[in-house]
Every structure is written in C-alpha cells, then in structure tokens.
C-alpha cells in the first residue's frame, strides 16, 4: 500500500504545533506572565477545556493540502473561542497562518482572497470583543502585515508552481511536435527512397530483360553478338547496383543529405545511348540551353525521361522509335518522351512508376500529361515552372 508522504508530513506538522501550543498554553498562564513582568490582565488560568481548544485549533493543519479552506475555517473557530474566553493561545495562531498560507498556495485567487478577509475579520472581531485588549494599534497593524505577508507568500508559491507546470507542459508539447515532425520526415524519406528504387530497378531490369532476350535469340547463330549483349547486361547491372547502393545508403545515416551526385538532364545522352543498346531506337533533341536547373527539378526531369523510355521499351513493340525532347523556355522547362508504338495497356498506365512521376511533377508545381498521341504512339510530357534567374 502506497503512503502519501505529503499527508504524513502534514500530520506530523500538526502534531508538533499542537504539542508546542499545549506546552506554552500550560506553562505560560497568567501567573507566569505576571511573574515575568508581562501584562496578563483578563486572562484565564489554563484548564483542560482550554487545552482541548488549543488542540482543536492546531489539528486541521493535518488536512491543509487536501481541504485547505475547510481546515482554515475549522481552525479559526477554536482559536476565536480561545481569544473570546480569555485563554492564552499558545502557538495556535501559528497554525492559523499555516492554514492561510495553504489556502493561498493551493486554491484560486477568489478563494484565497476570501480566506484572507476571513482571517482578518476573525482576528479583529476576537481582539475587539475579547477580554484581553491589545496594548496599542501597532499590534493590529503588525498582525495584519504578517497575515498579508503570509498570504502573499502562498500566492507566490502557487504562481511559481503554475509557471513550472506550464514550462513542463510546453516542453512536452514541443517534444510531441518534434516526434511528429520526425515521423513525417521519415515517412517522406521512405517515400522518396521508394520512388528512387522503383525508377532505378524498373528501368535497369527492363533493359537487362530485353538484352537477355536478344542474347538468347542469337546465342547459337552469332556468339559474338550474344557476348556483347551479355556484357551490356553486366554493365547495366553494375549501374543499377551502384545507384541502389547510393539510395539505400541514406537509410544507414542520420543525415538526410544525398550520398552522391544525382542524375540530371546532363546525363540524358548516356541514358539515350543505353536505350539504343537495348534495342529501342531513341533520339534526343535539346532546344535551347538548359543551363543550371534546381536540383529537384533536374532529378525529376531525368526520372521522367527514364520512366517514359522504360515504358516505351516495354510496351511500344518491335521496331518502335522514341524521341526525347527537352526545351527550355523563359520560366518553364518542357520535357517530353514520345514513341510511335502501340502504347501501354490500362495496367501500364496505372503502374507505380507513373504514379511516382505524378508525385515528382506535382511536388515542383509542374503539369503532367500521359496518354496516346492523336496520330498514334504514346506521350509522357511534363512542364516544370522555373523561377526568374533559374
């Protein structure tokens, strides 16, 4: 069973204050005060009833945290009776200050103000109506100042506690926001890596499949040509492994930076040459000077051409031709991949590759068109907006 240490501490405090108050109440009666040269006019001799009132005034300290206002009211009643009946109060007035402090530190402003006013009114009423009068008005002023100071100390503690709680809550909110941002960044990174892997694997595997098919057909009749096809397969496989290593390497580091230069428009001639070796007659046309492009747009344009040529290689059919057109206009980059083949089926149009291309183009505010051409063939075209100076 778990013990509430705060309640235990309050009970001990109440017991100490009650014991000290009873001791002072008993030892310092009217005869002792007069013997010591102190005024004791009108005070009654200590008796068991007075001692019981002292204990009753101190006992509510044990509940000062759980029910502070009720404890204050319960303590003021016997303390007021002690004053009205002319008994000495011992240290019971100290318990009243402890309870006032507790109300100020554990309850709202309205309740705390009410407790302060109640304490002041109770003291003034008992002092005026009781048989023992204060020596001068200075005593009233001192007691009032002490009560207000105790009340102010309690309010300061409450405000500090609220401030610390707000700091903890703010830190928790910031931590949750940081965790949420981290999860979003990881999800975005996984999505980016998935797109890159799909583009790399789909392109290179398609090229290798076509080259392997060509090597199989000419293996018996033309071993030298088959050997060249196998060498091309080996070269394509090495390229695919290198690109995948660069992409997957991001997962092994905490940094989200790229681990190597990414392909771009400058690498399109090598891509077109690779497609020619795979058996797709491809031509590259560059209109205007592309110049330096934003890294994201540069990579997106390259992946679009790569996906478009891969689809042409898969679906255009034997003898089809493809053309890649890259045109740089003021404020826009136009990238097209066209072929004169039969085009992909409905399944090819909804593949993950074209979905990834749509996401890339949309990410940079571009416009994507995918579909058959009016005179036959198929087209994948994207227009990327460029800011001034790009």
UniProtKB/TrEMBL annotation:
Domain DUF7134: residue ranges: 8-161
Family matches, as SUPFAM superfamilies: ATPase domain of HSP90 chaperone/DNA topoisomerase II/histidine kinase
UniProt keywords, alphabetically: ATP-binding, Coiled coil, Kinase, Membrane, Nucleotide-binding, Phosphoprotein, Transferase, Transmembrane, Transmembrane helix, Two-component regulatory system
Domain of life of the source: Bacteria
Keyword Translocase: no
Gene3D superfamilies xref list: 1.20.5.1930, Histidine kinase-like ATPase, C-terminal domain
Coiled coil: 157-184
Pfam family, one: HisKA_3
Transmembrane segments: 12-28, 84-103, 109-130, 137-154
EC number: 2.7.13.3
Name recorded for this polypeptide: histidine kinase
Originating organism: Nonomuraea insulae
């Amino acid at each position: 069973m778990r013990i509430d240490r705060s309640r235990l501490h309050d009970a001990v405090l109440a017991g100490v204050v009650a014991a000290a108050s009873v001791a002072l109440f008993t030892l310092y009666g009217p005869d002792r005060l007069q013997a010591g040269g102190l005024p004791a006019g009108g005070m009654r001799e200590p008796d068991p009833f007075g001692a019981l009132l002292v204990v009753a005034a101190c006992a509510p300290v044990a509940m000062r945290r759980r029910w502070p206002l009720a404890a204050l009211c319960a303590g003021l009643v016997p303390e007021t009776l002690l004053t009205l009946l002319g008994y000495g109060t011992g240290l019971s007035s100290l318990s009243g200050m402890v309870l006032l402090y507790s109300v100020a530190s554990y309850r709202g402003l309205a309740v705390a103000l009410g407790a302060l006013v109640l304490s002041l009114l109770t003291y003034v009423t008992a002092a005026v109506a009781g048989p023992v009068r204060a020596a001068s008005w200075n005593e009233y002023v001192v007691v009032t100042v002490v009560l207000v100071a105790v009340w102010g100390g309690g309010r300061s503690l409450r405000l500090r506690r609220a401030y610390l709680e707000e700091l903890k809550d703010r830190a928790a909110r910031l931590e949750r926001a940081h965790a949420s941002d981290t999860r979003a960044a990881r999800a975005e990174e996984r999505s980016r890596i998935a797109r890159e892997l799909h583009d790399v694997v789909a392109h290179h595997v398609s090229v290798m499949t076509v080259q392997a098919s060509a090597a199989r057909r000419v293996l018996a009749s033309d071993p030298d040509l088959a050997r060249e096809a196998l060498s091309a397969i080996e070269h394509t496989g090495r390229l695919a492994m290198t690109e995948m290593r660069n992409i997957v390497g991001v997962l092994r580091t905490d940094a989200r930076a790229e681990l190597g230069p990414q392909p771009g428009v400058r690498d399109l001639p090598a891509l077109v040459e690779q497609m020619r070796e795979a058996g797709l007659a491809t031509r590259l046309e560059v209109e205007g000077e592309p110049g330096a492009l934003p890294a994201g747009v540069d990579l997106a344009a390259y992946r679009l051409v790569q996906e478009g040529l891969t689809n042409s290689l898969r679906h255009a059919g034997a003898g089809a031709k493809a053309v890649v057109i890259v045109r740089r206009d003021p404020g826009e980059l136009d990238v097209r991949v066209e072929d004169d083949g039969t085009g992909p089926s409905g399944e090819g149009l909804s593949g993950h590759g074209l979905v990834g291309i749509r996401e890339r183009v949309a990410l940079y505010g571009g416009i994507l068109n995918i579909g058959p051409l009016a005179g036959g063939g198929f087209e994948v075209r994207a227009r990327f907006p460029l800011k001034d100076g790009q």
